[in-house]
């Protein structure tokens, strides 16, 4: 077996210009976190004081922000679309590189996570022309036109559904099949 003098992992720093940067996680919350016990409060204070909150990572200086976000996504188990990198108060564009922002060795980037909480979900309104009422859950959903309707417009005839004719034909066919299945058979020869 022959061995190569240098592999891609053990390349000298002259061949591959790498640098170590630190990623500091910044997460926001719309609700303040209140610890449930004094011991939990002391543990949280210790976590905040330890420098382990910053993630050290060694990367090439010409690495794109998109690739760095992908690496961080794998490392933090968070979706790539939720991660935003900030350096010197600027959000970093995925199409640019670390060198474009003059990010040097031992720089600290901030990883901004999305806020939890926020606005409550918007109430679904009736989709009939000028109706402003709230749509009824489950029974207000029309399976033929995919609309959401209030109690006044939930019937197919009331909201003039496009699938009304199809619905009537389907109902007629279903009733005809039921009647044919229940038809009494005449037995001859009795």
Automatic annotation (TrEMBL):
Keywords: Metal-binding, Zinc, Zinc-finger. Residues 27-50 are annotated as: Disordered. GO terms for molecular function: zinc ion binding. SUPFAM superfamilies: AN1-like Zinc finger, Ubiquitin-like. Residues 120-169 form the AN1-type domain. It comes from the Eukaryota. Residues 19-118 form the Ubiquitin-like domain. This is AN1-type zinc finger protein. The lineage of its organism: Eukaryota, Fungi, Dikarya, Ascomycota, Pezizomycotina.
């Amino acid at each position: 077996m022959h061995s190569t003098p240098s592999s891609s992992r053990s390349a000298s720093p002259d061949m591959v210009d790498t640098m170590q940067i630190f990623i500091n996680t910044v997460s926001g919350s719309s609700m303040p976190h209140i610890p449930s016990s004094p011991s939990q409060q002391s543990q949280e204070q210790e976590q905040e004081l330890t420098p382990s909150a910053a993630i050290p990572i060694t990367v090439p200086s010409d690495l794109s922000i998109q690739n760095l976000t992908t690496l961080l996504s794998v490392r933090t188990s968070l979706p790539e679309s939720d991660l935003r990198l900030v350096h010197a108060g600027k959000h970093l564009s995925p199409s640019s590189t670390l060198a474009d922002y003059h990010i040097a060795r031992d720089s600290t980037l901030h990883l901004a996570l999305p806020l939890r909480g926020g606005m409550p979900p918007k109430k679904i309104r009736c989709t009939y022309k000028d109706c402003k009422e709230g749509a009824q859950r489950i029974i207000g959903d029309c399976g033929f036109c995919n609309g959401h309707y209030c109690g006044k417009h939930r019937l197919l005839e009331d909201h003039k559904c496009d699938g009304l004719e199809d619905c009537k034909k389907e109902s007629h066919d279903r009733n005809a099949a039921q009647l044919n299945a229940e038809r009494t058979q005449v037995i001859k020869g009795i």
